[in-house]
Amino acid sequence: MLFALLVVVVALTACIEGDDPDTTAPAPPPGEEFGGVPTDSAGGNTLTPAIDPCGEAVPAAIVEPGTRQTVIGDVVNVRKAAGPHEPLTLLEFGEEGGDVPFAIAIPDRVLDEFAQPPAELYAGVEVCVNGVVQEFEGIPVIFIAGDGEIVTTGE
Question: Distance between CA atoms of 65 and 89, rounded to whole angstroms?
Answer without folding.
Answer: 19
